[in-house]
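Collaborator request, handled under Task 6.
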Amino acid sequence: MKPLILTSPLQGWASPLEAVPDPVFAERMMGDGIAVDPTGDCLHAPCDAVVLSVHASGHAITLRTPEGAEILMHIGLDTVALGGRGFSPCVTEGASVQRGDPLIRFDLDLLVCEARAVITPVIVTNPERFTIVRSETGKLVGVGEALMTIEPRDAAADVAIVEGDTVRRTIVVPLVHGIHARPAARIGEIARKFVSEVKITKDERDGNVRSPVALMALGVKLGDEITIAATGPDAADALAAIGDLILGGMGEKAGSAPTAPVFPRGGGGPGATNDNAAGSWPPASAGEQGAGKQATTLPADGRLPGVTASPGIAIGQAGLFRLAEIAVVREGADAATERAALDAALATVADRLATKSATAIGAERAILTAHSALLDDPTLTDDAHAAIARGDSAAYAWRTAIRAQADALHATGDPRLAERADDMLDLERQVLRALAGEDLDERLSFPPGTILLADDLLPSHLLGLDTASIVGFCVERGGPTSHVAILAATMGLPALVAMGPALAEIAAGTPLILDAGAGLLHVAPDAATRATAQAAFDAQTERRRAALANAARECRTQDGVRIEAFANLGSADDADVAVRNGAEGCGLLRTEFLFLERDSAPSVEEQTADYQRIADTLDGRPLIVRLLDIGGDKPAPYLPIAAEENPALGLRGIRVGLAHPDMLDAQLRAILAVRPAGQCRIMVPMIASLAELRAVRTALDAAAAATGHTEHVALGIMIETPAAAITADLLAQEADFLSIGTNDLTQYALAMDRGNPAVASDLDGLHPAVLRLIARTCEGGAVHGKWTGVCGGLASDPLAVPILIGLGVTELSSAPALVPEIKALVATLTIDACRAHAAAAMSCISAADVRTLARSFRP
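Structure tokens returned to the collaborator:
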């Protein structure tokens, strides 16, 4: 199979997964991939695929490509807690989608305001089958730009040994956390596809691969050597499948993410432990507890520390929950009756898990799948059936079987496996409730604004939480890698674990501030602390609400100077969002989405139809169409562009159009066909000389003559090279307008490749050198009465906007969802203040100094 290119589903900044402030993604627990911090507000399909699932809250979606790759996209962090607010899915489960199709629209303002982060992981969830061979990080990407390339994994190169009917294979385990619940469940799932019996041996102990508990009890760790043995008619195939699955890493391969433990502030450190079996807790703070001593009273300052399971802040009141033991009797009826009752209860729980799993995604789905595998574990059912045969009741037999295996996991001494014992106890409760004919969902009902305090929580409890009422939780026990912790992060609930018995001393209804990121629970905070926390949140919420309410107003400074507030677009969906957010036009339409990832260039008719849809959506507002900007980091397979040592300095931008005049002519004809005539303006990318502009003008005149187009069409240029900025006065003689692409201008001015992570962190458009080039551009345009806009990243940066206006910029084209905020900011500015501020910024010696200055600027 040839490599599969996944294009960016969002416009924004692409980063490695390590940049995601959530261990579920950063540690690749769910698979490998890339994250995009969005500036747009529509998630698009990164490839042709079928929709496997859309989360009920609308914040995440999973696709499967024809090649079998499964792609999860999770918009923001903690966004499940919004309960669907701000998300509008465009597709349903089972739908077929094509690359670039809209999948989920979302309210970026709402997410920025209420979610922990908007960074969006794009994950390959079956990395045992596919590996990422190329990725684009540390750069701004647009919808449809190449994000990563994946290929199927090669078959393992190790040799199997055949001994009669048995085939053996010895491998070294690459899983960073060893074989714990989810890997064990996946191994069992694969094993059940074959007839042969398969076992794994470690240190002369073996376990049936169909039994996740037996595999976990082996205590297999990273770097351990294990032997896989298969016996039966399809032994070779079974051995290859299971061995390749383990060697593929299952998203947990060592080296794919940092393996050193990360200790949250105030939440333990190298001496802290999270082993439930040992019943020990991380120290509250240095010197606060004696060696081996537990805190039994609340600290005097009301600051109770814990271990971060899911960061975030919640303000509310305490709600209490204690996990009560379910009583069972040992003596049963006849064995046949008891066995039938147990089998019926197991089937009931299995059906419930399957139903929930069908609509779940990501970590929630993985946990439910692991629970299903545990429930189907032959070790558990065989032991329970044996106990029933000895006269035990179904309930007592099931509890005995579960507890024995949970003890085996504790006995490994591995804290991660000890935490899996909680999953066993969860299944114990669910089956016992089914046996008693009770509702399997233990609903926890509390008043709105509840921060739940519990001695412990099980995954099923967490999945049954009413997140509209419960805004966070803290537990006495548990660990940061428990399934409860993972679910908390996935659901967007701030959470602390391993807080110790002091938590039990907090009374119901006590006011609380949960600062999970800092590892602290503030108990009965004073008025000042509570007011500070509430005020910061309320102020941001109100600013965004007011900005959106006033978004339809014409954009002017406080002293009446007109500044056009446009939006950068990539599709009609983007245009719809832009109009709803008060955009006064489109300052940059990226047309490359029509040209990439296809075998041939789009026809004139196809292009016209797309441009017309966008123009219609804008309802007469100006539409600035950028001519095709490919080449370099955005190749098209049908264009014969030879490999270049430095693509950023090679055949890209308008150079590609001039090198392929037929393609340029087709695009110009398509733009000219849009009605009403005059709504579209044309913008030329990567101009470096007046000769290039004149060549495009000649091509435009020829296309107009050939199509009978007589109306004037504005032809502007993008200022992306220092050459264009320095000679702006010359270019403005013949260009109708100038628009600065600050991303590339910064790259070229600072000689820093924005695709190179080694230098990309220092790539800042507020560098004084870049600001001086922007000033020179505005001055050059003004000489000939031509306006200058900014359509690059700086137009979406509130710190940069006053400086840009002070330099002479009169049009700002930002991300659609940011338009209300930009318009609200402009309304607070005066031209004189902005000019003075811009002059001071150009006198700074670094981008960091400019940003410090910008933060202190008060309109």
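The cover message to the collaborator said: "Residues 311 and 516 are 5 Å apart (CA to CA). The chain is about 35% helix and 20% strand. Please let us know whether this matches your experimental observations."
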